[in-house]
Amino acid sequence: MGSANLPSIGFIGLGQMGAPMVRNLIKAGYRPVIHNRSRAIVDEIAAEGADPAGSAAEVAERVEILFTCVGFPADVERVYLGEGGAIEGARAGQVFCDLSTVGPDTHHTISARVAEKGVGYLDAPISGGTSGAVAGTLTIMVGGEREHFELVRPMLDVMGQNIHLVGPTGAGSAIKLVNQMMNLINAMGAVEGLILATKAGIDPEQAYEILRTSSGASRSLDNVATTALPRNFEPGFTADLMHKDVSLAVDLGRQLGVRLLSGALAEQILEEARLNGLGGKMYTAPMLVQEKLAGVEVKKKES
Question: Cβ distance 278 to 243 under 8 Å?
């Protein structure tokens, strides 16, 4: 059960984002019931003030509010609707809140199924990276009913700083996919710009200093430069995960009849990097492919 005057909560998915969010909930006085496919992180966080559970169903049985944060649509469906899934432990009056980035269709499916048991459901994808998860400064975009949102809001305020109820189920997912698509489009522009500047004989560090204070500036430029200049393309946020997100955005555009030419092109550039074995690297890794084509490297000058 939760601490005095606090609801009992559960958290499934203790990856790079989930683990620091759970730790912030513990610091705020909650004692979450936790579950993850790999056990080591469960034991580690349990020692810090959480209670382990053997399955998603067991977590759901023991809590009033359940959070999930996993990778791909199939993972989300498995956690909620698969064998040993949260739906098996569901009961009327609970609220389930998924923090993953998947498409609206996945949330509509899960929401309808858990509603049959009287459970409220929120899609609440997050943005801000691992640093934002650690600092508790994430942006959280929520789709669902306001009454369920208000019940979960105190916990969201622990995990994030910019909390938005966007609309009905699926709305949080939709705006997150828009964000991811725009991020990648901007990043691919930054990749091409820095490669072009370097090929033109401009010191890439100076190019970045000029661009970041000019109209070509963006957070995506910062992300590209801070991986490229020191030649560190370790994630971070992987190319595989970004490809999943942007592909979902392009699919949503197709469903809604919206032409997403730049988004589709950015998706294909990322797919090219994945075909070159870079799916597990930072999502800025298409730079490595394009540098080879251009015959230059965007890197700091040697001292």
Answer: no
Annotation says 176 is catalytic: yes
Beta bridge partners of 143: 123, 167
CA–CA gap between residue 214 and residue 182 (Å, rounded) = 19
- CATH number, domain at 251? 1.10.1040.10
| Residue 246 sits in the same domain as residue 157 | no
Domain around 101: 9-167
Q: Which residues, including other chains, have CB under 8 Å from residue 98's CB and lie 6 or more apart?
A: 67, 68, 69, 76, 80, 107, 110, 121, 122, 123, 124
Long-range Cβ pairs for the range 44-48 (8 Å, 24+): 45/14, 45/19, 48/23
Residues 274 and 224 in one domain: yes
Q: Choose one of 167, 189, 223: the last residue of a domain.
A: 167
- Of the candidates 167, 190, 225, which is a domain's last residue? 167
* Token code pair at residue 161: 């700083």
The predicted model gives 54-60 an average pLDDT of 97
What tens digit of pLDDT does each residue of 75-91 get? 999 999 999 999 999 99
Number of domains forming the structure of the chain:
2
What residue type is 259 in one-letter code?
Answer: R
Block residue for tokens 């010191």: 203
Token pair listed for 212? 């970041």
Instruction: Provide the whole-model pTM.
Output: 0.94
Average pLDDT over residues 60-64: 98
Average pLDDT (269-288) is: 97
Q: Do residues 156 and 194 share a domain?
A: no
Active-site residue, selected from the candidate residues 27, 117, 176, 299: 176
